[in-house]
Specification:
The complex is a heterodimer of chains A (371) and B (269). By secondary structure, chain A is α+β, with helices and mostly antiparallel strands. Helix content of chain A is 25%, strand content 35%. In chain A, the strands form 4 sheets. Chain A has a 6-stranded mixed β-sheet, with helices on both faces. The longest helix of chain B has 33 residues, at 63-95. Chain B starts with a helix and ends with a helix. The chains are: A alpha+beta (371), B mainly alpha (269).
């Protein structure tokens, strides 16, 4: 893990980001858009930077692309320091949020642009452009101008244009945000297919948690210019380490509890009903017994039970969502709790307002937060 | 009250229509008269005696008219070409670089001819060039070219800058991302998209140069009359419909250029 093995690490990591910072100045006021970010992006993976607007994800992407130069820190692509290199000297291509297709060129000329700039022969440009058109299923539109094709088609052309020079890394800056829901779903699987077929490392920026969860091999959740947590979608979802991560991704119950005992990477915590349960600890946190921590329980990890309840609650209301029902409970001490029941059969028990029910949390469904 | 304000329209003001009509009459009746009498058979400016193209014939046969027309066109093309080139560079520098100290100052300097009265510019140029003439002995067209170029720069600069400001910066970023260097980005992306603005700037400069009397009058040496100063000189002596004919052709040329300018500057990618 030591930084001195940088050379060996970059053999598996396509991109190494080391203590990267970017400060923007507005008059005398400094805005720290990126704050000492360190992350490795593996070769051939679909890596997503997820966070709300202003969290620094686009800044990080631009620093990788070379549109901005860092205030401090390093960007290493394919084992090579790229500090000071312009975007035209980096083996990465970008799919822009607004596609940025050249309006005065045909679809085919747009796709061939990168190859022409690299000085490839006309035959290579023609052959690769044809292959790219086929890859994104746009053969019929080759001679059209960008203004003569639909938004979804423009998106495909932008992808083909960025893939044509066969970059080591493809950077995607919220490429699906301008599409309607149906088209977005289509393009999600299309993107995944392209990534698998080409084997190129994808770095995808989005604020949409569903997009991130369904498409990524790994996700880095960002806020305030820092990466709060990175890991597989399941890891991030099931084991959020910080309140922001738990809150930003999925629906969550937060409960303040007391640590009873610590046992390696797990801890026993006292639930509102008085009973103790085993909870996972986030990396780098070893609280001592008796301290108060916040835990998260996902709504679908809790169920209503008649026996062996962890705690009890009073039903405030139950909202029917078709496939499942969201049950809102009030717990002792005025905290609230939501659980999700799958509507598996027509015989689901009605839950009248004010009734008292027992709640059982599934094994491994409790996660302690760092803050 | 608020509702009335929202629906406020200047066309609803009393007298709007009559003022509008009066304005158009004042603007176009003199021009129409000029055009009509250029086809008059008689030499009179007030009595119509029948249709004739004789004054156009006279203008074409007048070697002096031919000479000053060619000089005016040559000067307009040369000066507006130089002005457009300089204006393009100025527009790129003021829109495509990070804000630098003195940028507002440069903007003011580029637009100086728009703000300073022409007589002042003319006098300044006269004195300045007189000094150079004494030192070098050169009395060629260079002075007029330099004066017209400088005067045309702001007119060329404005449409070019407007075009650059509305152009999406990510297009240039995308070009750089696709391995184009600075020159290639300009050559293959910025310039083709900027071309309508450049042409509009050129045409505006062309019309302004063709038209300007004051500066030319101050700067020209003997035998360097342009069409505009020649006409002024002629009208001072006698007024014949030959001038009407020349002015009508002049008007036609300006109209064509202005229409082209509007078509080009309205076109969006």
């Amino acid at each position: 893990m030591a930084d001195t093995t940088g050379r060996a690490a970059s053999a598996t990591n396509e991109i190494e980001i080391k203590r990267l910072s970017k400060v923007f100045w507005q008059g005398d006021a400094a805005f720290r858009a990126l704050d000492e970010v360190t992350i490795g992006i593996r070769s051939g993976e679909f890596f997503t930077l997820l966070g709300p607007s202003g969290c620094g994800k686009t800044t990080l992407l631009r620093l990788i692309a070379g549109f901005e130069q860092p205030s401090a820190g390093e960007v290493i692509i394919n084992g090579r320091q790229v500090a000071g290199l312009g975007p035209n000297a980096r083996p990465v291509n970008t799919v822009f949020q607004n596609y940025a297709l050249f309006p005065h060129m045909t679809v085919a000329d747009n796709i061939g642009f990168g190859l022409r700039m690299l000085g490839k022969s006309a035959a290579v440009v023609r052959e690769t452009t044809g292959r790219m058109l086929e890859l994104v299923r746009m053969e019929a539109m080759a001679a059209r101008k960008p203004s003569e094709i639909s938004g979804g088609q423009q998106q495909r052309v932008a992808l083909a244009r960025a893939l044509a020079p066969q970059p080591r890394v493809l950077l995607l800056d919220e490429p699906l945000s301008a599409l309607d829901l149906k088209l977005r779903k289509e393009m999600q699987s299309e993107l995944k297919r392209l990534q698998t077929e080409t084997g190129i490392t994808f770095v995808f920026v989005t604020h949409d948690q569903h997009e991130a969860l369904t498409m990524s091999d790994r996700i880095a959740v960002m806020s305030g210019g820092r990466i709060l947590q990175s890991g597989s979608p399941a890891d991030i979802y099931n084991h959020p380490a910080e309140r922001f991560v738990a809150d930003f991704i999925g629906d969550t119950n937060f409960l303040d509890v007391e640590i009873v005992a610590v046992n390696g990477r797990a801890a026993d915590v006292r639930l509102p009903g008085g009973g103790t349960r085993r909870a996972s600890l986030p990396e780098g946190l070893s609280p001592s017994a008796g301290t108060n921590v916040t835990i998260v329980i996902r709504p679908e990890h809790a169920s209503i039970t008649d026996e062996a309840a962890d705690f009890e609650g009073t039903v405030e209301d139950a909202v029917f969502f078709g496939t499942d029902t969201h049950v809102h409970l009030r717990l002792p001490g005025e905290s609230r709790f939501t659980l999700r029941r799958q509507n598996t059969g027509a015989g689901a028990v009605a839950l009248p307002e004010g009734s008292r029910v027992g709640v059982r949390v599934a094994e491994g469904g409790i996660q302690v937060l760092r803050n | 009250m608020a509702r009335a304000r929202r629906n406020f329209s200047i066309t609803a003001l009393p007298g709007f229509a009559s003022i509008a009509v009066l304005t158009f009459v004042l603007l176009y009746v003199p021009i129409a008269t000029l055009v009509v009498f250029s086809f008059n058979e008689a030499a009179s400016m007030s009595r119509w005696q029948g249709f004739s193209l004789q004054w156009y014939q006279a203008a074409f046969d007048n070697s002096q008219v031919r000479e000053v027309s060619i000089r005016a066109l040559w000067l307009a093309v040369t000066a507006s070409a130089i002005a457009t080139f300089a204006a393009t560079l100025a527009a790129l520098a003021t829109t495509r670089t990070p804000k630098f100290p003195g940028q507002t100052m440069i903007y003011a300097l580029v637009n100086q001819p728009l703000m300073v009265p022409e007589v002042v510019t003319g006098t300044a140029l006269l004195i300045f060039f007189a000094g150079i003439k004494m030192q070098t002995g050169y009395t060629g067209m260079g002075y007029l070219v330099a004066a017209h170029s400088a005067f045309c720069i702001p007119f060329a600069y404005l449409p070019i800058r407007a075009r650059l400001q509305t152009m999406d910066l990510t297009l240039e970023r995308a070009a750089a991302d696709l391995y184009a260097n600075h020159f290639q980005t300009f050559r293959y992306v910025t310039l083709p998209l900027l071309l309508p603005g450049v042409l509009a700037g050129f045409m505006l400069g062309f019309v302004i140069s063709l038209d300007t009397v004051v500066i030319t009058e101050f700067v020209k040496s003997a035998g360097q009359d342009t069409l505009a100063t020649y006409m002024l000189g002629q009208i001072r002596r006698t007024v014949t419909p030959e001038m009407n004919a020349i002015a009508t052709l002049f008007l036609l040329l300006s109209a064509v250029v202005v229409v082209l300018f509007f078509i080009l500057s309205r076109k969006r990618p």
